[in-house]
């Protein structure tokens, strides 16, 4: 069995009187893609912010890459990288300058070389010297993820990486995420799209009511549900019917 | 934290380089912090100046300190705006989740404010020289002038940090600067206070801008500065300390 690179136990967090996390437990295996599923406001972002050392939990323990988040937040920061819900790029700087800036902040020896490599890898050479503010949503997200890869962190947190992207941008991000995992990086992502979790994740956790109510592989989760029924329908389904069928099939409970 | 603190200056220079680029790439900022004050100076000297009695032979000499304070006052609105965008775009979060000296995220902005305002002050003084500004001040007096302007900038910068971090909209972030830009008008910046009505005069003579302007004006004219410089320093330092403490409190919450 693989080593658990993230261990979260009994994490609680409340904002004033509202309890968002009511004792969250899960473990993430090294090198895999772990998806945290939940509806809006379920506390996915809160959980990511706690693990990224941005927010202190009220109770519970978080151990990442062997470091306790209370005692060694600085060491955790060297092991992780965060890509937040909105592309955190400097829109006044060019794509290249954004990458170089992060490389310098990670104290790498060759910031320009690091930037060049990522620009090639992400197919951004045409846009690299334009201001990032002029990029499309998909390109912003690509630069954003590229910035997170600088310094080869062991774990990458992606908070709703495809929210707001068009289908093409979404596919691009999926490809990147699969590539990361193939290269040995642990990917922790949150999503509200079930299809995304289904496409990408080795393990899926469902966060609901402040707790993890299910945690398993896709195969394992499917066993929790009654087998899908086969129905014969005469007419062509409308998009709405397709949507509702999918929701009905996977979104129950 | 040991590993991050030794990189303080490296990280700070990256942060500084970044926000200086923001200034030089924003025509609007250059316009506000440099061109507008110069235009004001031209307007006051060549249009209104002839009719203004200040008791000095050279109105540019009289006017310059006030113009410098206005330039600084309008420049710091952009500090608040830049901080606000960093907070809103998630750039703070990215930096804070990285292994860098955390305080450089804020100090980069503060340093940028000091240096960029320093640059616009120098440019305005050079233009004033072309317009006939002359000073008999020695090196010590000039150091005094830049010292006061520096602390004044620092005081306003920390106010800007509070505004930028606490604001909910970009307009809100910059709104605090309007009264600050306006303060020099109700001071001895453009005309001596003794022609003002009693109440206005009382306000003008007791608000922080007047002693700052008087101190700078006397330093530039190589005249004794009297109490003004201490009153000016007391104002600036108090505002700096109080604003800094509040700014740090707000910063910790984000």
Task: Summarize, please.
The complex is a heterodimer of chains A (253) and B (254). Chain A has helices spanning 44-51, 73-79, 95-105, 111-121, 137-149, 167-182, 194-200, 218-223, 239-250; strands spanning 4-15, 18-29, 33-37, 59-64, 67-68, 80-83, 155-159, 186-191, 203-208, 211-216. In chain A, 43% of the residues are buried.
Secondary structure topology:
The complex is a heterodimer of chains A (253) and B (254).
Chain A: E1 4-15, E2 18-29, E3 33-37, H1 44-51, E4 59-64, E5 67-68, H2 73-79, E6 80-83, H3 95-105, H4 111-121, H5 137-149, E7 155-159, H6 167-182, E8 186-191, H7 194-200, E9 203-208, E10 211-216, H8 218-223, H9 239-250
Parallel strand pairs in A: 3-8, 3-9, 6-7, 7-8
Antiparallel strand pairs in A: 1-2, 1-4, 4-5, 9-10
Helix pairs in contact in A: 3-4, 3-5, 5-6
Chain B: H1 2-5, H2 8-24, H3 27-48, H4 59-88, H5 91-96, H6 104-130, H7 139-166, H8 170-175, H9 177-182, H10 198-206, H11 209-220, H12 228-253
Helix pairs in contact in B: 2-6, 3-4, 3-6, 4-6, 4-7, 4-11, 6-7, 7-11, 7-12, 11-12
Key features of this structure:
heterodimer; A: 253 residues; alpha/beta; Rossmann fold; 6-stranded mixed β-sheet; 4-stranded antiparallel β-sheet; 9 helices; B: 254 residues; mainly alpha; 12 helices; 0% strand
Descriptive account of the structure:
The complex is a heterodimer of chains A (253) and B (254). Chain A is an alpha/beta fold and 253 residues long. Chain A has 9 helices and 10 strands. Chain A has a single domain, classed as P-loop containing nucleotide triphosphate hydrolases (Rossmann fold, 3-Layer(aba) Sandwich). Chain A has helices at residues 44-51, 73-79, 95-105, 111-121, 137-149, 167-182, 194-200, 218-223, 239-250, and strands at residues 4-15, 18-29, 33-37, 59-64, 67-68, 80-83, 155-159, 186-191, 203-208, 211-216. A 6-stranded mixed sheet of chain A has the order 6-7-8-3-9-10, with helices on both faces. In chain A, a hairpin with a 2-residue loop joins strand 4 and strand 5 (67-68). The mean pLDDT of chain A is 89. The model of chain B has no long low-confidence stretch (mean pLDDT 91). Chain B has one domain (2-253). In chain B, 76% of the residues lie in helices and 0% in strands. The longest helix of chain B has 30 residues, at 59-88. Chain B has 254 residues and is mainly α.
């Amino acid at each position: 069995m693989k080593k658990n690179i993230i261990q979260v136990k009994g994490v609680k967090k409340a904002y004033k009187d509202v309890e968002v996390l009511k004792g969250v437990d899960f473990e993430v295996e090294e090198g895999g893609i772990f998806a945290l599923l939940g509806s809006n406001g379920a506390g996915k972002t809160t959980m990511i912010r706690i693990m990224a050392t941005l927010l202190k939990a009220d109770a519970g323990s978080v151990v990442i890459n062997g470091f306790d988040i209370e005692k060694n937040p600085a060491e955790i920061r060297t092991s992780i990288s965060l890509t937040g819900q909105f592309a955190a790029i400097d829109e006044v700087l060019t794509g290249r300058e954004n990458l170089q800036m992060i490389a310098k902040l990670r104290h790498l020896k060759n910031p320009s070389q690091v930037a060049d490599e990522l620009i090639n890898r992400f197919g951004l050479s045409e846009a690299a010297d334009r201001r990032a503010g002029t990029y499309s949503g998909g390109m912003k997200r690509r630069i954003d993820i590229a910035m997170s890869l600088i310094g080869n962190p062991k774990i990458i947190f992606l908070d709703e990486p495809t929210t707001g992207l068009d289908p093409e941008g979404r596919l691009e991000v999926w490809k990147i995420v699969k590539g990361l995992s193939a290269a040995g990086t642990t990917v922790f992502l949150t999503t509200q799209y079930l299809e995304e979790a289904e496409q990408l994740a080795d393990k899926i956790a469902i966060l609901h009511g402040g707790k993890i109510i299910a945690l398993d592989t896709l195969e394992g989760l499917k066993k929790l549900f009654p087998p899908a029924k086969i129905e014969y329908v005469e007419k062509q389904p409308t998009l709405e019917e397709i949507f509702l069928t999918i929701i009905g099939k996977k979104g129950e409970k | 934290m040991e590993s991050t603190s030794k990189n303080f200056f490296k990280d700070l220079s990256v942060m500084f380089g970044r926000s200086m680029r923001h200034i030089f790439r924003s025509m609007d900022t250059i316009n506000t912090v440099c061109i507008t004050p110069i235009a004001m100076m031209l307007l006051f000297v060549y249009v209104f100046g002839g009719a203004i009695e200040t008791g000095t032979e050279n109105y540019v000499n009289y006017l310059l300190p006030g113009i410098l304070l206005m330039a600084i006052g309008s420049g710091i609105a952009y500090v608040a705006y830049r901080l606000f965008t960093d907070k809103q775009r998630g750039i703070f979060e990215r930096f804070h989740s990285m292994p860098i000296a955390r305080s450089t995220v804020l100090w980069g902005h503060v340093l940028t404010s000091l240096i960029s305002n320093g640059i616009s002050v120098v440019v305005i003084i050079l233009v004033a020289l072309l317009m006939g500004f002359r000073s008999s001040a020695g090196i010590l007096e000039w150091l005094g002038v830049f010292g006061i302007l520096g602390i004044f900038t620092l005081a306003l910068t920390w106010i800007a940090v509070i505004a930028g971090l606490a604001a909910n909209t970009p307009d809100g972030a910059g709104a605090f600067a309007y009264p600050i830009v306006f303060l020099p008008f109700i001071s001895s910046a453009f005309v001596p206070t003794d022609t003002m009505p009693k109440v206005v005069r009382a306000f003008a003579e007791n608000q922080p801008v007047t002693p700052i302007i008087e101190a700078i004006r006397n330093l530039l004219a190589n005249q004794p500065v009297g109490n003004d410089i201490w009153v000016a320093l007391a104002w600036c330092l108090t505002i700096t300390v109080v604003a800094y403490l509040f700014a740090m409190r707000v910063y910790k919450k984000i």
